TrEMBL record:
UniProt source species: Flavobacterium resistens
Pfam families recorded: Ion_trans_2 (PF07885)
Protein name per its UniProtKB record: Ion channel
UniProt domain Potassium channel: residue ranges: 136-219
Sequence intervals crossing the membrane: 20-37, 43-62, 69-86, 92-114, 126-149
Keywords: Membrane, Transmembrane, Transmembrane helix
InterPro entries cross-referenced by the UniProt entry: K_chnl_dom
Cited SUPFAM superfamilies: Voltage-gated potassium channels
Gene3D superfamilies: 1.10.287.70
Amino acid sequence: MKDKENRFLFGLWKKESGLGGMLILLCIMHFIAIPFFGSYPRFMVGLNIFWMLFLFAGIFSLSKHKKQAFIISIIPILFVIIQWIDYFNRNIIILFADLFLTIAVMGLLILLVLRKVLEPGPVTTYRIIGSVVVYMLLVQLWCTLYLFLFRHIEGSFNIVKSQFEINSDQASFMYFSYVSITSTGFGEIVPLHPLARSLVQIEVLTGVLYPVILIGRLVSDANFSIKKQE
């Protein structure tokens, strides 16, 4: 068991300090990898494989029973299978299955990190960092949804042309997702389709409510820990 916990990916889940590692990985992915290397398919495939391994490590580290871990693991396994099928035989059913499983995988990752953040005990710096990790994962989730709409519903977004070459559509919508969730709204990307606008509204609402609710929960945990010590 100790060997398992000492492995890099398992260590990120088992130790609170691992949340800091997750934040660094996400920062590299969101601010370097996707903006500058997003147009390289092999690189992105490698990145996705890493995140799948990371997710599996989280599932097996945090699950109370092996049976539970194997059941939950069905989601990422199906995701990988659908990705391979989509690569060789793309059709509408596979397309929506891929979207559904992508959302499921991202949601599962968010829940696993939230579980670490909301564990009983005193509020530490690393738990605050974990909250930021969840925030960034939410950004990535909405980026996936925006990208799907942009690619499959023509005219769903209007993107202002720039003199600078954008590395990939994913980079554009990762940027747009950050702008939306923080309610910044620079206006380079404008949602036009009703579904796109609804998604933006939900993301903005999430960006406003998530910190408020989470801070309230963490403050409550901190007060409970102080009273318990007394």
